[in-house]
Design brief:
Blueprint (H helix, E strand, L loop, with lengths): L11 H32 L23 H13 L6 E2 L8 E2 L4 H18 L3 H32 L1 H13 L1 H4 L10 H17 L4 E2 L14 H21 L1 H28 L3 E2 L1 H23 L13 H21 L3 H5 L5 H17 L9 H6 L9 H8 L5 H19 L2 H23 L4 H22 L2 H31 L5 H5 L1
Antiparallel strand pairs: 1-2, 3-4
Helix pairs in contact: 1-4, 1-5, 1-19, 2-3, 3-4, 4-5, 4-7, 5-18, 5-19, 7-8, 7-9, 7-18, 8-9, 8-10, 9-11, 9-17, 10-11, 11-13, 16-17, 16-18, 17-18, 18-19
Amino acid sequence: MSPPTETPRPRWSLLIAAWAGCALLLGLHTVAVRDYLAFVDGVGRRAEATATTPLRQFVPARFSDAQMWVRHTLTARESGVARVRFTDTDNAPQGRAVHWSSGFRWLLAGAGSVRAAATGEPPIVALERALLWLNAPLLLTLIIVLSAWIARRAGTVAGALVAAGMVGLPRFHDNFTPMNADHHGLIAAALLGLLLGLAGMGAGWWQPAGGPRPPFLPLSREQARAAAIFSAICGAIGMAISAASTIPAIAIVGVAGLAATWWAGPEAATAGARFEPAVWRCWGRVGGALSAVFYLCEYAPAHLGWRLEVNHPLYALAWWGGAELVALLGARHEQDDRATKSITRLALPILAVFAPLVIILVGGTAVFALRDPFIGDLRHFVIEGQTLPTVLRRIGARPLLPDLALFCVVISATVVLFRSRGTTRLMLAFLLATNAAWAALTFAEIRWMMALSVAQLVLFVTLLLLPIRTASHGWRFALVGAVVLAVAAVGIARVATERDKIARRWLADDDVRQ
């Protein structure tokens, strides 16, 4: 069967069925975690004792950091201040400035208000109990948004695979575990939207209908531009939530897109694809402008400053500059005469890209707290700030087996890359370069494994779509069915694990200490 030449239209009935399956798995897991927490809470109290403290719910030890969001949310509620910029619950007795996203605090406060209105519980109790049920509908909403968007771009199967990956990949799903009131889940979703959008804009390339095309590659400038805007919106949301996690992602996809253009661009052009510098420019301008708007929403008018550990207009300027560099250098490599004559236009984008680094070097700890040796070294005292070899020595390979197994799939994708041709080689080169960069960062610090899982998800969906789109109906059904069964097995295993702990009356050591 020849490769498809048009983007298949989504069959919404099948996609709704996929969403229903995801909802069922999320609901079963939430109920199982609720029962486990109730079991642990009962073990921790004698007879009919009732907790009377403001916060009463047992929280698993691995989610203890997330409770800081609860404390900040309560502080904002008690003080009547919407955007908390200082806390006295940390670094006692002096306290410290905080720069966590107010948007996530508003989400937690909203969930608590809804529960309080529905149950009549005291506000603090309602907020705490809402955390058990918040993540399931939040993840389901994100699944629907992202999978529906990609289904419109690449068909029903693509949307269903993205939905399945968001539920099935442990490193992604774990960010949305019940009671894990943390922003990492939203960061992962923002990075996924950023990368899906970049894939949907063909890393700056598009190919008219009428010839073989890889998954996601747009059919027109308009499709590529729309995908660039979607990617930029997701990236800007990620900047508002956590600039520290999003800035590397923006830099990586820009460099990966340029590298793929230089390496596989000539062959893609021969196959009929076209490089579109304006698409990269649109991506940088929209993303930079939105991230600057989000900065003003967070800090204006009383807290404007030069704190560069978080979202800042300088990073918005660097985003624009980086995208402009990719557009200019990519077009120059394609021997565009106008680009060749405009080499002097590189100066301003280069200055924009390096402006934050210059300010950090000049301003020191006054603008970038991580330059302080004490603060900078703190991350090495927690497991997420350590290297992959160090973590393997400390906890062994067993907890990381799923992650290590995924590396094998990435390696196999390299074989597919060198056997592919034309625009397929271009897209795989872009996605593999992105995965390689995140893998290198993960080797240096294990905390980047979450971002790596996002890059792996987009690569896996692409690799699965390559045979599915060209297979016969029977083989297509078998491949999709295998993915569905695998995700269902993973989801059921999660539920069974929680139920088994209750049946065996087993508590993790850290939970016992809690």
